[in-house]
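>> received
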Amino acid sequence: MNPEELKLVVQEKYGEIASQSKNQNQSSCCGSSGCCGDMDYSIFSDDYTQLEGYNAGADLGLGCGIPTEYADSKKGDHVLDLGSGAGNDCFVARTIVGESGMVTGIDFTDEMLVKAKENLKKTGYRNIQFVKGDIERMPLPDNSFNVVISNCVLNLVPDKARAFSEIFRVLKPGAHFCISDVVITEELPVKLKEAAEMYAGCISGALQKEEYLDLIRKQGFNHLELKKEKEILIPNSILLNHISLEELRIFKKKRIGIYSITVKAVK
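>> returned
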């Protein structure tokens, strides 16, 4: 698929996800409808329930880290959340920046934006906004944000170099991003890389870790820090939907690692 076709896959599947509960998404990404096969998002997500500002209606269990944990946001900051979904990280970030701060969430899936705005309306907060936009071409001004966060989203962006270039553009000088994402330690089998539902599940779009970190440096960022790293174990039952038993044996023998990382860097 070309980049635009991949984006349509993501929009369609995450549009379906938006209509499901967290429990349904963690049993398969679209619950009983099966629109995304058997991808189990609980293998990625961290527990948000004890965080200040947690909004249960916004938690669809789709992340692979907690970027606000290491984002070093402070009162009065303007935070941008890339691929904000139903608003989970935005509500946590709003608690950190306080009433004097501002949080903007950007997403290109209409159903997610509707859900996020419904969640926002229930809170009465006036300093969170959700806008529609493509991360590769954000409809946002230059030098506008103190912090950019994102949670398991850039894997879904075909042109990651362009995405990090856009992050650099919208950050204020001296500002920083903190992003949780998925990376790999070896090249994935071709069939996994070509599988659309694995792409929407954040796996087949993953770059190798060093390539990912080098891409960030090439966009001009400094003081790159790897704040957290954890291995993600994909059940054999899911992998066998895309590769043969023999290919699975090779996959295991090569010890191909899939990891969630949280990375921070400064403009």
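>> Confidence is low (pLDDT under 50) at residues 27-37.
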